[in-house]
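To whoever picks this up:

The nightly regression suite flagged DUF4276 family protein as changed. Nothing in the input moved, so I suspect the structure step. Input below, exactly as stored in the fixture:
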Amino acid sequence: MKAGLRLMENRVDLVMVHRDADNVGSLARREEIAGALGKTAAPAWCPIIPVRMTEAWLLLDETLIRQVAGNPRGKAALGLPKLHEAEKVADPKELLRSALLAAAQSTGRRRERDGKRFNQQRRQLLERLDRHGPVSKLSSWQQLLTDVDAIAT
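Regenerated output under the current build:
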């Protein structure tokens, strides 16, 4: 954090801090972030704290997963959770990885190559996330919007 502020010559209006809640909970992560930022010159900050992992937010758009996997018309079962289950998935990152591979329906060397594209595919899913779609119904997303609104007003 300090290095980033130095790089920007302390000309920062807002710091967005991403930290997955994982197993310790949102409040503990919020306190952790506040403690770390209290030691810096950051003027305003906003936590981004998914309940488990950011990947849980990405599990909600089957159509987009199939597009990013390169097989938009595929029919393979992806094993995606329902909306009310998304933030309860034990390992959303692994489930997303499996869903992308299943959606691609590739085999052999191509499947191996597809498996190595996970970080790129995850980035594409994040960039194309529909902010007004199913993710908007998740508690962690709603909290993020509340935090952003509090800073903006």
